[in-house]
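USER:
Try writing one entry.

ASSISTANT:
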Amino acid sequence: MKLYSHIKKAPEYFIVEELPRLEIASDGKYDVFLLQKRNTSTLEAVRIISKLLKIPLKTIGFAGLKDKYAVTTQYITLPSGTISEEEIQFVNNGRWQIGKERKNSFFKIKFLGRTNRPLSLGEIEGNKFTIKVRNFEKSMREKFYRNFQTIKLYGFPNYFGEQRFGSVKSRDDFVLRYLLKGNFEEALKVYFLGKEKINVITSWQNIYKILKPTLEEYEKDLLKGLIRGLPAEKAFRILPKNIRIMFNFAFQSYLFNRFLGEYIKQKYPHIQIPFINNWKLYFYTEVEDFEKLKGLKIPYIGYEFPPEDPLLRKIIRKIFKEEKIDPATFNTEIAGIKVMTDGERKAIVIPKNFKIISKTKKEVTLEFILPLGAYATILLRNLLAV
């Protein structure tokens, strides 16, 4: 993807520091540790801590998921006294182990103090980013500085970034589409194969045989159940609940991006930028009604939060019709999860302390703070127009 030719050459090009909503004291029911990691996802680090230190996974509290291909700093909590060491380093030398030699993938935890409650998802003020943009060619500079000033003045559209669409394996392919139709068999084939291959590999035996080396244990159990004749709906429930919920999040995030993109496209001068799966994102270049836009919230479906803006109402109806979404599915339960639930998200994000901290002929280093839920990769797409 073109964006990544300009960032993430090495994890050190993408530095993320969590800004916690956390009071650290000298005593309390929970120990607070600083988790510093490189080339490792938050979930992977937490699982390794649980496994190697023999700590129940559910007792490890954390507030946010940080990028894998980055150098990141965040906070975790554990019940007081769970770990006696002040600092522990984990390295990947073919397999994860506790050690001191720094490898390509590693992380460490360092004791900071105590608090009276565990961290839970969402309990952060935001994240501070330091990002080096490379391959900063002369042809990019005029566009870059123009977009930089636009973002300084008007912020940028609050689209969901590509990280939100981990369950999408091919273009316009969402497991939830099939669940909404009650077609669990097709939903599972899309989950394992992606839309483009579901008519090529047809039997569960073949799917299991081909994918076995890459499958998680619960996926193996699921496919073995299907091979034995377990109904697809029951087999689907073998997937962990957090994964089933992500199918809903991914589809609703896609709808939100469509609502916001169409609103910008119809209302403001804009540029069009390619996104994953041949989707398009639209970024405004001028805004005449900034105060209104700054306060605008886009609903996920508009069921509990109907928008006041007539243009937005019209756009949501139009997209629901195009996507063949039946309002009868709103806020219903399918396979043990609530689907098509409503909520609101701000239409734009205004980065704090957005500045260039160094530059050469070929590289520019940026620094900025984003609130919880905003994506640095979306800001960068807007800035670089790629």
Q: What stands out?
A: Residues 89 and 108 are 4 Å apart (CA to CA). DSSP finds eleven helices and 18 strands in the chain. Residues 183-241 form one domain.
